[in-house]
Amino acid sequence: MKILFVANGDEKANGRFFYSPDRKIAHGMIQNGHHVWFFSDRDIARNSTFFKTRKLGVKKCNERFILTFKNLIPDLVVLGNSKIITNSSLEEVRKIHPSVRIIQFNVDAIFNKNNALKILDRAPHVDASFVTTAGKSLKQFDTERSTTYFIPNPVDPSIESTANYLRDELKNDVFCAMRRARKPIPESPRHIIPTRILHELPDLRPSFHGFNNAGELYGAAYFKTLSECKMGLNLSQTFSTESLEPANKEDLYLYSSDRISHYMGCGLLTFIDSIFGYQDLFTDQEMVFYDSYDELIDKIKFYASNNTQLRNIAKNGSERYHALMNNQIVARYMIERTFKSKLQHAYHWVT
Fold first, then answer.
1. Per-residue pLDDT reduced to its tens digit, 206-237
2. Would the pTM of this model clear 0.90, i.e. be above it?
3. How many domains does the chain have?
C-alpha cells in the first residue's frame, strides 16, 4: 500500500523530536510493508516563503500536497495533527482518486477546547479518527462518514531500547520531564507532586526537568538522562491549558502524554494516577497506581528501598508494553479500522 503521511517532521528542530508519535507511526507502517511518503507540512509551508513563516506558506503547501498526491496516487492519506492542509484540499484529492482513504490522528488532550475543535473540524472530511484518549467522550467526534477510535502511545523498539531494569547501577531514582507551563497552575499535580517529593523525600535522587527552574529536556540528552533512572513519574495534564480548569473525568480515560511509552518502553518503574484508568490495561505487577499524593509518596519511598521488586515490576510492564503496544501493532490497527477489515490481532486496548 502507498501512504501519503502528512505530519510535523520538525526539520526545523534538527532531529530534537526524533521520538515523536508521528515518526513512530510512520515507521510502524513502513515496517508493516507499506511505502510511506512523509510530507512535513509545517516545514514545507515555512520553507515556501521568503520570510520562512508557516502562515504565509499555507497556500503553497496545499498546492504541493495536491501535486504530491497526483504523483503518488496513494491508497491512504494520514494526517497527524495537521491543520495546514485544508479540508477543501482533501475533497479535491478525493476527486482525483475516489477510492482513497483519509484518516487523522491526534495525540493531544481532548479536554483542551481548541484541540477538540480541531478534531471536530476535520472529522467530516476523513474516514476515521484516532486519538490517545478512550471512552464515551470519543462519540462527539463521530460523523456519518467517520468513526473515532482510541490508540495507545506506541513504543518503538528501535527508540525505547535501554531496558533500565537490567542495570545494577543507575545514577538517579526517579525521573520526570515536562514542558514548562506557560501559565503555572499551583493546584495541578504536575506542580504539587514534584514539590512534595523534593520536600518529603530528601534522600531520594530525583531527575526533574521542566519544573521550577530546571530546564526542559529533549533529543538524545532526554533519553540519556532517562536511561540513568529507576522510576518514572507519568504526570499527564489534568487541567486545561486554556481555561486552567480541571478536566472532566470522562475526558481523562486512558489519556496520557507520549512519555508513558518512553518510561514503560525503556524499563522504568512507571507511576500513574488511577484517575486515567490504566489499571484496566495493566496490573499492579506491571505499573504502579495511586489514588492520592500520600499513597504516591509512600510507594516511591517503598520501591526506592526495594530494588528487586522495583526491577521485577518494571520488567513486566516494559515487556508487556513492547508486546502489545508497539508501533507496528498500532499502525496495523489503524489501517484495519480505516479499511473496515477484520481485526487480525487481539488488540489489548480496544474499548
1. 999 998 778 899 999 999 999 999 999 999 99
2. yes
3. 2
